[in-house]
Amino acid sequence: MPYRSLQDDIVYEEDQYELTEDGRVPSKHSFTPKYQDGSTIDWLHEEGLERERNYRLQSQAGVRGVLFPTLESARLWLLVILTGVGIGIAGAWLDVLVKWLGDLREGRCTYGFFYNSNACCTGIGPGEICNEWKSWGDYLEVNSIFGRSLLHASIYVVLAIAFAGSAAVLVESWAPLAFHTGIPEIKAILGGYVFDKFLTPWILLIKALGLALSVASGLSLGKEGPLVHVACCMAYLLSRLFKGFQQNEVQKRRMLAAAAAAGVSVAFGSPLGGVLFGLEELDTFANESEVMWRGFVASAIAAVALQWVNPFGTAKLVLFQVTFVSDTWRAFELIPWIALGIMGGVLGSLLIRLNVEIALYRRNSILHGWPVMEVISVSAVTASISYLIVFARVQTSELVANLFQECDPTKPDYHGLCNPTATTQNIFLLFLTAILKVVLTAWTFGIAVPAGIFLPTIGIGACLGRAVGLITQSLYRAYPTAWIFLSCPPDPSVRCISPGFYAVIGASAMLGGVTRMTISLVVILFELTGALSHVLPIMICVMTSKWVGDAMGKDGIYAAWIAMRQYPWIPPVDYRDGGEIGTNVMKPLSELVVIRDGITTLGELRQFLKQYQFHGFPVIDGHDEFVGWATRQALDANLGRLQLDDTATENSKKCTFSPNRFRIPLHERVDLPEALEESIIELRQEAPQELVVNMFQKLNLRQIIFTQAGKLTGLVTKRDIVNLLTSHFPHTGALARTQPDHDEQ
Amino acid sequence: MPYRSLQDDIVYEEDQYELTEDGRVPSKHSFTPKYQDGSTIDWLHEEGLERERNYRLQSQAGVRGVLFPTLESARLWLLVILTGVGIGIAGAWLDVLVKWLGDLREGRCTYGFFYNSNACCTGIGPGEICNEWKSWGDYLEVNSIFGRSLLHASIYVVLAIAFAGSAAVLVESWAPLAFHTGIPEIKAILGGYVFDKFLTPWILLIKALGLALSVASGLSLGKEGPLVHVACCMAYLLSRLFKGFQQNEVQKRRMLAAAAAAGVSVAFGSPLGGVLFGLEELDTFANESEVMWRGFVASAIAAVALQWVNPFGTAKLVLFQVTFVSDTWRAFELIPWIALGIMGGVLGSLLIRLNVEIALYRRNSILHGWPVMEVISVSAVTASISYLIVFARVQTSELVANLFQECDPTKPDYHGLCNPTATTQNIFLLFLTAILKVVLTAWTFGIAVPAGIFLPTIGIGACLGRAVGLITQSLYRAYPTAWIFLSCPPDPSVRCISPGFYAVIGASAMLGGVTRMTISLVVILFELTGALSHVLPIMICVMTSKWVGDAMGKDGIYAAWIAMRQYPWIPPVDYRDGGEIGTNVMKPLSELVVIRDGITTLGELRQFLKQYQFHGFPVIDGHDEFVGWATRQALDANLGRLQLDDTATENSKKCTFSPNRFRIPLHERVDLPEALEESIIELRQEAPQELVVNMFQKLNLRQIIFTQAGKLTGLVTKRDIVNLLTSHFPHTGALARTQPDHDEQ
């Protein structure tokens, strides 16, 4: 008989947050299912629990049957609203902290250490000069130019190292999981991966603090991705206040999805972009309008909270407000824009590859043991080089805001960008900054501090775009009457080309190449810049960039990290098989651990449950006919209810599951039909692989049973599908944290 | 044995477009499956055909194995691009035609009959007066005031009746299916409903022409929905040029989805909104990034084409450009906005109910036989009443554009809206117009002309919103120092409240109440108005309106029409059962027409195929064990290949499908295992109803088989699920065009 052990050498840590809470369980469905970190939830089973719970609520007698479901719904929306408000306030608070820490690298407020440069100078009229905010040279009254330069550079570099180092120490000592962006993990969790350790209050605290420190240190990283992680931690924490959302893994994930949308909403000041990010990138709202709706509400409320706190004092959600010379654009501009799209696709793919290579090198070299030292070195190098280049010295968000601005004689000329005599120099510096940032970002995204990839990518793209815009503008100024510029006014002093908008286009292209997002990206860029009138060029450019990028490698940066970590996440790709059928990925019956209806004894079953940590077991009868699927939890619960006889009797009793059990006398059998799952999907062996993948993608399945004329022939699990879909990626599992497969038959 | 006929009294029309094309078919999968209009496609089966086709293309020897798939892909994108360009140009041409016809009701161009008022007056400077465009009174040199008024009113009313009447005659004589919006049918078609007659070139032509006439007639209808239908007809026509897209029903639907997105893109000048409309409302891109991507490209290209043709001479996509007094809004404004949201939800639900009641009355009264007369009466009433009310006289699109404008002393004051002494009168007139338009729209949406519901709904909402805005503004002007207005400047001459933006809010609320869209609606409104800085109020208002509307009735207007027509369309709702299991909707074995493996003879099988028009039959063996699912097409094809013996022998031969066939001697059996479908999904009887509905929603299934320990127990078809989900709607099937169920077991 095919009773084979696949991996019985795995030892499990108890999940510290849930497993110890309850002991003996009274009925099949009335206990909380426990999943170990690293396993995959059984979506259909959890839905079943939720259904039972709702049914119990609704079937209460009298008023309670109406009141309880209403209260339940009210609690849910209260949780959504609280989450939105919490994330909005946390995001605003982070912005304030980052601004203060970042400003501290350049100077301080004379009348109070804890004011940032904006807060310090409030109440100053437009023409006045703010004397309250002093650079360190002024404040410490160093008068020699050399001394001042040295002082400024030293403080700049030293504080950068101090901030980054503290962030790394915090992360390494208190919450090692709080490093990196968190998006790959959130994607995996929302897809059913169990990773409760990733959402603890400690991680929330350390990630938020560490994020503020690492952003302020001037490392080439952004706060957007980690903010989504922070939002999810917050929702997880809040949902503990409400029983029910915490107990049901599917409900928990629905709340987390709404929180993630709210996180994006706050990160970019983009409520609509948040919802669409949830829809497209997190792939969680598919067909669940209820969940999308929650994301919508959470996003809107988070944005209201952010606007109410008003961290930048502008009362605006649009972070990088763009004002264009004209609302129209000319057909010839499509040439540089499509060129930018191609550049974005190529450079994005290169950035992903470089980042993957560095991550592999880090894991396999001496760096692996010295994460804090690595952070300190990277921040020292970043700060030293950045200080020398005018565009790299300021914080990336400030750089992007300035690059997106059009030249306007009535406004200050940031970094000399609008100086027409320095165009060549500017173009060179912009390209240099872009290349530098590509290398620094590829290294930084993965070191032991919280780090997002969005903002640096926008920065790289904005530099490239502005450079291309300047080139186009110079060409137009040099040859204003060339046929290609015919649609522009012939007088070159009239503006025709907006280099600021080229920067927006460049940012879109680069983001498209790195993240491979499409619609949510376009919406986020609108809401970020207010550039609604230029929707078409942005769409065309994102399209080009994604096409070029996909030709150079299918995976976006998050998909690459998910594959390297080997999380059980099924990418929402359109999988097309080459004629293979389901049996291709199937684990055949001979390799499965099965329970035999009416043959396996109670003693053997107990032995099974000890020996194998699998989530569930197929039950078949003597002729291999498929009887059902018994989960470990249901078996445990059913066995727990049994009156225990002495071991000898017990071991002679047969376990029965099907209606055929009456062939066996009552005293020789144990009836366990309740241990069978209701929601089990069967397919024929000849079912095309495409259908199998499709069902896993759309129904969040954990396993599909293959039968032929009633006989069990094999089993496909989510892990098999994940392996199939990541097989093209050469470094799958290179950074795996947990042993895969450990609870999947 | 349970051989029962369910409906053998139905006679089928042959599908005139496809059925006559081919006769005998050589192999199982190499023929085009034919579906009758009114049936539902078998999504998995079609996917299988597509897979086989791709496999054949890729497995060609040598260069052809690379070249053919590349060509295939190039053809596909060429089709997408052509569709986009075609829809963009068609939309622009329609705009021009509508503008000319509409202007004709007021006057004509002196130097050319075929110029509209804009084209007639091109080249006129901003200060100059256009003398070339003359009202009919001027042109015909009628000088008495009474005579002029009478002339203008008569021409207005007579031309309205003439336009609407011609549209109705065109529709009734040439293409009766071209009336109404078309969105419900497109939704059903995209969901798998077969309705090829709905997409013919005739319909394309008549719908486009009729649309121009009916919009120009001033009836309370819009062009947006019908334009989506026109776009789909165009894609269908173009796809005939490309073999393969036409033959495969799933491929065809993917192209139609992209075309529908492009249609919305052109209708609203909203490329991003088009994609999101496809995503949310048409529910077709779910998890199919490839299809979403096509919609993205088609939308973008259609918008480029529209902008290139530039029908309005503004070179802008934003149709109703909004400019606000300030970018910020005050917290107290949430009160009137949420009030507007509630009004929108209530009025939207009322409009839906009224429309449904009128549709039922039309069907069951004498009106049913006199569609053209009804159109003429409605247009006469509409024109007569509208001429009397200043806000109703202009075309709805013009009214909306003006209502969205802020008052600005430097610009003309449309309709006296900005006259501060006429505020009370304006508020009264605006409410009156809104009520009038609700009634007229409820009647017009369903008469025998092409008619969309979007624009009239926007018009109603804009009137309401502007009225509420004027009320708020009056309150502020009367009590500028009240505590609620504290956040406004205390000087009432400074603007604090923007009634124009209230009109935008009102339009959002009303649209939310009528269509129950959420995200795509918000995006369309952005792109329509450019009001990006006010994303939050619009989101909050759409939320409120949808909540209130859903409380008054779950269905949006399209869902209501789909239910009345009884199209097999599964709404993408979050279905939650109350503890029911799948058997609740299941048709049990005893009611099914089955083939018995090794028992049914060839003669009986032939008899079966003649007697029942079902799409497929379950095959079971002697013990009711489920062997497989044989489609009618596959059976036909396999029987066609047989060498025919004499009838007597034939009738004694048993049909065999399973590997068990070897029990029967070769000369006594016919082997038909190839007739079984590969993609058949089995569930246990205890599977929760929620899972069953979910699988139909997400996998586009046609049927699910229920088995218990290998034995067939029943069958659930798409039609059963549709009936389940529309059971709450009291008028399901009231307007049904085709007999339902006619090909579903």
From TrEMBL, chains A, B:
It is found in: Membrane. It holds the Pfam family Voltage_CLC. InterPro entries: CBS_dom, CBS_dom_sf, Cl-channel_core, ClC. Keywords: CBS domain, Chloride, Ion transport, Membrane, Transmembrane, Transmembrane helix, Transport. The keyword Transmembrane applies. GO terms for molecular function: voltage-gated chloride channel activity. It is a multi-pass membrane protein. It comes from the Eukaryota. One of its GO terms (cellular component) is plasma membrane. Residues 586-647 form the CBS domain. Signal peptide: none annotated. SMART domains: CBS (SM00116). Its main location: membrane. The keyword Transmembrane helix applies. CDD domains: ClC_3_like. The chain crosses the membrane at residues 76-98, 150-171, 202-221, 227-243, 255-279, 291-310, 331-352, 372-392, 427-447, 453-476, 521-542. Belongs to the chloride channel (TC 2.A.49) family. PANTHER family: CHLORIDE CHANNEL PROTEIN. This is Chloride channel protein. It comes from Panaeolus cyanescens. The lineage of its organism: Eukaryota, Fungi, Dikarya, Basidiomycota, Agaricomycotina.
